[in-house]
């Protein structure tokens, strides 16, 4: 009799332990949790610590409190009208005509004009946090769905902002303002759609010319360099002709003066010899 009572007590104790274990859940410091009852959220989001729930009726959904990342694939974006200016010093020599006694002719590096309405390859990424787990659960549900949604929103915002931004601005100190504008647009869209997340940072990692635009730009650079080189050589030849003509004129004058002086000296010598 005593043995059966002990077995019953032991069984009840085990059941109580199981119920307690199913009723207690621990939220890690990197997480936040929602308690769902039949699919509906109960109460406020739970922070780090020990919490309780009703076994078998309530379940726990955990969400990351840390900063999450979304990294869309690089895409083509059409930039605004721009003028690409080479960053090298303006006094760099393209072609130099070396002529003795003449100055070196210095030309500026060419500027590639009118690169406008052309697509560039833009690689960007964003960092975000789940600030409202309940709203996040209602609208998105999972991080994978959130990343897909943010990919679309980030791409749309990037296209809208870069459509008004020139490549020169994108590659200068104004790049920070461009990224801030993209982040503001993304956050406005997120707030409108009530996604329960917040964009912490947006960065443009890379902005490159497409292969077609790079090829056409290099061709324009080569063409303009050739034109400048031809112009420089023509100016050098013209300057060389001027120097040669001046040298020939001075040579003729010097020889004539020398002949005159020698004739005078010979005449004086002949006169002196006759006197002697």
Would you write up a description of this structure?
With 276 residues, the chain is of the alpha+beta class. It is 50% helix and 22% strand. The protein contains six helices and nine strands. It has helices spanning 2-23, 133-139, 143-162, 167-170, 175-193, 211-275, and strands at 24-27, 31-37, 40-46, 49-52, 58-64, 68-70, 75-78, 119-130, 197-209. The strands form three sheets. Strands 6, 7, 8 and 9 form a four-stranded antiparallel sheet that branches. A three-stranded antiparallel sheet has the order 3-2-5, with no helix packed on it. The chain has a two-stranded antiparallel sheet with strand order 1-4. A hairpin with a 2-residue loop joins strand 2 and strand 3. Helix 3 packs across helix 5. The protein starts with a helix and ends with a helix. The relative contact order is 0.12.
